[in-house]
Each structure stands twice: as C-alpha cells, then as structure tokens.
Amino acid sequence: MLKYSKALGLIVFVFLFAMCNQKSKSETEKETILKGSLDITVDETVKQIVDDQVAVFEGTYYDAKITVKPKSEAEVINDLLNQKAKVVITTRNLTKEELARFDKSKINPRVTPFAQDAIAFISNKNNNDTLIALKSVIDFMQGKPDPKIKGLVFDNPNSSTVRYMKELAKVNAIPTNGVFSFKTNNEVIKFVSENDGMIGVVGVNWLYQPTPDMTETIKKINVLSVKGLNGTGYYSPTQNDLGEEKYPLARDLFIINCQGYSGLGMGFASFIAGDIGQRIVLKSGLLPYKTPGRKLKIRSEIIKDKE
C-alpha cells in the first residue's frame, strides 16, 4: 500500500510538473513577430493609413490581432513614456529628453520611419482663392490679423498639427481670438465646409482617405497650395511635391517599438517598412519612405498575338 501511494504521488508530481512546463511554454509562445495580439496607440491625424496597414497585415498573418487606438500626439507620447503603450505611431521622432527617460529605465526604443505625410490647409469651396502663404498663417498665429483669414481651425489642442504650427510660429500657446479647435480632423473638415473664410489645419491623410460618411463633405472644400517661408512658388501636399521636397509642411511618420523583445511590434514594423507596406503607403497618396521597386520585362522585339 505504501509503495502504491509513493507511485501515485510520483505520477501526480510528474503530471503537475509537465502541466507547469506546458503552461510556461504556451505563455512564451503566445506572441511572436507574426502571432499574438497587440495594441498600437496612433496619432489620430494618420489613423487612416495605419488602419490600411493593419487590415493587410492581419489578412496575411491570420494569427495576428492588432488593435488601433487613436489619440492626440500628447496622449500618444505620454502613454509611451509612462509605459502604458509599448508600440506607437507618431509624426515625429523622440526628443533627447524623451530618449534619456527611456535610457534610465534601461529601455531601447526601436524607431522605424515608414512614410511622409503633410499638414494641409483647407478652405470652403466658395473661396475662389486656393493659394495661401505660410507666413500669413504664422502671422495670424502670432496675433496679427490677416484680411484673407477669418479664423484658423485645428483638430485638437494637444494634436501634432497644433504642436507643429506652434513650433513654426514660435509661440507657446495658440491665440484665444480667431483660432478654434475641435476633437477630430473630420470635425474640422465639416466645419470648414459649412463656413466661408475659415482655414482648416488637418492631416492630409484624412483628405486622401476620407471615411465613407465624409466623402460628400470633402467635395465641399479646397485643399490650398502653400508658399513656403523662403520660396516663391505655391505647392500642394501631393506625392510629387513631397517627393521633390517642395511642399513646406511635410513631416515623417514613425513607428516606435518599446516592447523589448521580438514580438508582434517588431513584425508589424518590419511589415510597414517592407515592400508590401510601402506599396500601401504609395497607394494611400502619402510618400513611402522607400520607393517600392518595379520589375520591367524588356524584349528585343514585339510579339504579336496569334489570331
């Protein structure tokens, strides 16, 4: 009977040990570069292109599930610094001060540039003047009135567009008179489409890839051509003008990965920076960080179809 109890105890021990090992193994294998689940916090102004990337990535790798969480730039960076988010997409790189905070925590962020988009100025369709000088907008943000600008409209006080324009205008805060802000880019587009004389400041991604409910609204606004501070010509936020570095309000897009291991964040970053991801960027109307190659088949003679 004693031998039987010992044998039974040994079997139970081996079984429990095997189960613990299996559980530990399943936990470590739960996420890889192509499998698992991941939350990505995204600058709201570029949500559309990220949604496209995620859709194709998940359609290619069925065991991967990525949830996109759009927020203002300030919220995105704060979540990353406070380790509430491990992978984010931003319209700027990390500053020296932000990198120093990660260094203190022994975290080495992996920063991958993958596209270039732009800040666009929009006006009501009734406005026949589709040209605007960047200096006029900067002067207006510095509190100087301009007869061509009734008001400026931003998406969010903490957005990347506000931060970008504040840096250009060298002001610490946007003026209280003549400058308005909502919560989203779609709200800005809708407001400008209904109000003459207002200039909207939005991420161009929302104009190239409008949501279905905004398709008709987009037709009621003009995308303005902009003259830079040191230029003489007016340029639009198109792929061509971005590629030739003529448009004065261009900005790079980055995916920042602080997972610290070979997880889904690394796999997704490699995907959007790779050939397929760059083709998705190209199709979206933004400028890919690396222009996708094309294979050409050259023939010495033209082969006619057989009748």
From TrEMBL:
<dbReference type="InterPro" id="IPR050811">
    <property type="entry name" value="Phosphate_ABC_transporter"/>
</dbReference>
<dbReference type="InterPro" id="IPR024370">
    <property type="entry name" value="PBP_domain"/>
</dbReference>
<keyword id="KW-0732">Signal</keyword>
<dbReference type="Pfam" id="PF12849">
    <property type="entry name" value="PBP_like_2"/>
</dbReference>
<feature type="domain" description="PBP">
    <location>
        <begin position="35"/>
        <end position="274"/>
    </location>
</feature>
<protein>
    <submittedName>
        <fullName>Substrate-binding domain-containing protein</fullName>
    </submittedName>
</protein>
<feature type="signal peptide">
    <location>
        <begin position="1"/>
        <end position="20"/>
    </location>
</feature>
